[in-house]
Amino acid sequence: MSSLPDATTCYELLARMTLIRRFEEEAGRQYQRAKAGGFLHLAIGEEATIVGTASVMKPEDYLIGTYRTHGHAIARGTDPKRVMAELFGRVDGTSGGRGGSMHIFDSEVRFMGGYGIVGGNLPIAAGLALSSQYKDEDAVTVCMFGDGASNAGNFGETMNLAALWKLPIFFLVENNLYGMGTAVERHSAQTDLSEKAEGYGIPGERIDGMDVVAVREAVAEGIRLAREEQRPTLIEAFTYRYRGHSAADPEVYREREEVDEWRQKDPIETFAKRCIEEDVLGEKEVEAVREKAEELVTAAVEFAEASPEPALDTLYENLYVLDSDAWYAVDERSPELHRGEREATMPDAARELAEAGAAYAEGEQGERPNPAVHGDAELGVPPEVAEEVEDEPEEAEA
Amino acid sequence: MAELRMREALRDAMSEEMRRDDSVFVMGEDVGVFQGAFKVTEGLLDEFGEKRVRDTPISENTIVGAGVGAAMGGLRPIVELMTVNFSLLALDQIINHAAAIPYMFNGQARVPMVIRMPGGGGHQLGPTHSHSLEALYLQVPGLLVACPSTPADGKALLKTAIRDDNPVVFIEHESLYGNRGEVAGDGDEILRFGEAAVRREGSDVTIIGILKMAHVAEEAATTLSEKHGIEAEVIDPRTLRPLDLDTILESVRRTNRAVLVEEGWPHGGVGANLATLITEQAFDHLDAPVQRVTGADVPMPYSRRLEQAAIPHEEHVVQAALAALEGAI
Description:
Chain A is α/β, with parallel strands linked by helices. Chain A contains 15 helices and seven strands. In chain A, helix 1 packs antiparallel against helix 10 and helix 4 packs across helix 11. The mean pLDDT of chain B is about 95.
């Protein structure tokens, strides 16, 4: 086992992982309250892989992820307030309420996005790395994706391009054992995902994604190879999400024993314990980390609650770049879609119609029925499964 | 001014912009050593080298996606896809990513890239190399769509597309690559997107055609004048997004009749869209139903006879114009 880094680093690693854990738990709660909409993919259990990776990146490096990336943005330095506000669909969210949970983005910390299409981020990662290589910049692109994405055509295409062009890129597959509800051995003929890119000239390595120190070491070397030798590599980090694929997942595909088994390897608990045992951090500091996380997450929810809803007249904003340095961007006469003469000649009537449409958002704000708990006729979840899931204990407090 | 073929005009647009701006580069299948499947990138590799003229593997979605990422990283990629049909393999990156990213990340990322693709029938390339999918890209908010019909427009619009900060789908027509025309020399001759060209003035009927059909529309107008004494106004929109609807509506309000010509399929086509816009905004000016001339509603057949039967020709346009004028002449 690798030795622990210095106390400051350990404190920071623990603080980030704890913050992400608390953030995700709270996001789940806010989803139940219907404050967050759409799909919600939580990374509870995967914190060591996320934080370990981000902790060895330089500020100029790019990080690009999937639809499960609240934690990735936070690990990179995005204010959790802005991530929570995005989940709430508010103007102070990372994407001003246009992206939602699956599309977190923060250019200031070079977090280059959450992407809702499985494998959709892979070619873009290659392009980001190409831009660094082209401009002779020092930046490395770190591309994280799930085990399911290793079956997408983009995986092979991107691995080939990265190796062929010797791009400054590093790949990390977050293998949480399931592509949605399909277990790795049921979705991938080659279950050793670290070998999947070898035929393209990209060597791989398997690591324990629940051990933040192991992740740091392996990723640091991968980034070094990309930066100094232009050699893309792939790391398969074994990790586990305690919660379902999304908040709307009845989890009929796995046994509770399996979840419990992984909880024993909890990345935060084990790391905190080790830090105390090896006398790097004290009980007090670990407690302080928890309190700080609680404080930040409470503030994030308050911030998100207070942030305004997007104004209706911003509906078309940022669809096109209108202040382009180029000679000409979009014709100012028709950047928006045409709805007939009425919109042009009767702007008040058009605005009233927009408000009438938006009024449909004002439905009941009560508890969101959770298919995992209440069953869902459309999903065909049998009631006994629903009951079983209902018994699931709360996450162990980190 | 010089007389150039369309392919040369497009190449000059790229090479001039590459000389002007180091961040502009070209990538695609066989654009370098092979000099382009349609020889549009001829000579670029020699002048600019492998860093800026990049041959890629046959991985359309990843080529476009790498272009998206490179654009987000501050470059200005020109991605060549060998045909419009092949662009279907890249629809995920074009629609889910290139078009959506500026909006879904609320302006934090820009995607200044050009995706060039030739389409259209006439070379017996059958159902996987000959389609006209302007309507598909026209439908996507976030994209700009250009479809030049002359070498001068091709060069000027491509230069604009390269300089623009939005993702541009730049559709070329395989049958027009060899067409010659007067083209402006190296300079800053660019053309605003959203400015239609009135190719011929007339007061009896408005004929609107794109790409190769812009030429067919002009030929039909000549025949209408010579054989039927009908003066047609011919408009080439040149870009579909943004669309110069003002010029089109102004013309239709004068002629009171419209014929829309495209090589693409009829259902949900460019003409279908345009007919709706005209009906919505100039209904009271119409003296006859809007007429459409489109490609046949089939995958493009190989047989020369069948292929030509599936593509609109001058006669179809003349007949549609006469139908629009029925009772008035």
